[in-house]
Write a structure and sequence with these properties.
The chain is mainly alpha-helical. It folds into two domains: 101 residues; 137 residues, no CATH class. It has 13 helices and two strands; from the N terminus they run H-H-H-H-H-H-H-H-H-H-H-E-E-H-H. The protein has a two-stranded antiparallel ribbon with strand order 1-2. A hairpin with a 7-residue loop joins strand 1 and strand 2. The chain is elongated and about 70 Å long.
Length: 273
């Protein structure tokens, strides 16, 4: 698993983990290479990582280049170093606020995932009016759910409603009716993602929360449900929000490469009480 700078509030903990992670260029000799890159002796780097000494701003910037940080990662890493070096509570508070803003700026998944939204507003209104459009959209990619009959049986929806939904998904470009004798349907080129600024986002979430309740009423061993109320620091809450957002990115990457065999719904709630 990759080590992310955004999961940390202590740059030394982050660096130690990162330099020990072979998947990110760490491991044997990583501290020596870092020391050379930032222009210090290896002994000084060890003193920083294990003691009370700190890298300077210039050394931290050189470390950014060595670690291959993006602009966003580099800015956050410099804030971590500045936070550690700050000598007053007021200055630490200022850097903490900047860190929170940096994390919050990463929370708009629409921008981070790079998703285009080609559907018309009318098509979006239809697609998000009911959960079954998205469910059919997902199931149709699986060979065992390539007919009105199998979809109707699986979703417990009448065939007319399934057929109407298939017609909409075809005309909107979300699925394609094949004519080459293979599977009757395949996923189309159109892609959609609702951002936090969409007026449809609450309807979308409500649709799937209602299906989650249905799943709770008919529990299956392969299902997983988790609910908890916790108290924690404001900064940790922001860090956890960032980690959850990054986990969504990782989940989407796995789904994109995974063969279509089963269909699952994924819902996540993380909100202030």
């Amino acid at each position: 698993m990759e080590v992310s700078v955004f999961d940390h509030k202590d740059y030394k903990i982050y660096l130690n983990l990162r330099l020990n992670n072979p998947k990110q260029g760490g491991g044997h000799g990583a501290r020596s290479r870092l020391s050379q890159a930032i222009g210090v002796q290896t002994a000084y780097t060890a003193q920083v990582l294990r003691g009370t000494a700190h890298f300077s701003g210039e050394q931290a910037e050189a470390a950014n280049e060595f670690l291959g940080h993006s602009e966003e990662e580099g800015h956050y890493f410099l804030l971590l170093v500045l936070l550690a070096r700050a000598g007053t509570r007021a200055l630490k508070a200022r850097y903490l606020k900047q860190m929170e803003r940096s994390l919050e700026s990463r929370q708009v998944l629409k921008t981070r995932l790079g998703v285009k939204q080609p559907l018309s507003e009318a098509d979006q209104l239809t697609y998000y009016s009911s959960w079954h459009f998205a469910a059919i959209h997902a199931l149709i990619s699986i060979p065992g759910f390539q007919s009105v009959e199998t979809l109707s049986e699986r979703l417990r929806i009448d065939k007319k409603r399934i057929a109407n939904a298939l017609d909409f998904l075809i005309t909107s470009g979300l699925i394609v009716r094949n004519t080459d004798g293979k599977m009757p349907y395949s996923i189309g080129e159109a892609r959609i993602h609702l951002g936090v600024d969409s007026p449809l986002v609450s309807k979308h979430h409500i649709n799937w929360r209602m299906q989650a309740v249905r799943a709770l009423e008919n529990p299956l061993q392969q299902n997983l449900h988790y609910s908890s109320a916790v108290s924690l620091s404001a900064l940790d809450a922001t860090v956890l929000r960032e980690q959850l957002a990054r986990n969504i990115e990782q989940l989407k990457a796995v789904v994109k490469k995974s063969p279509e065999e089963v269909a699952y719904a994924f819902s996540l709630d993380w909100f202030e009480i």
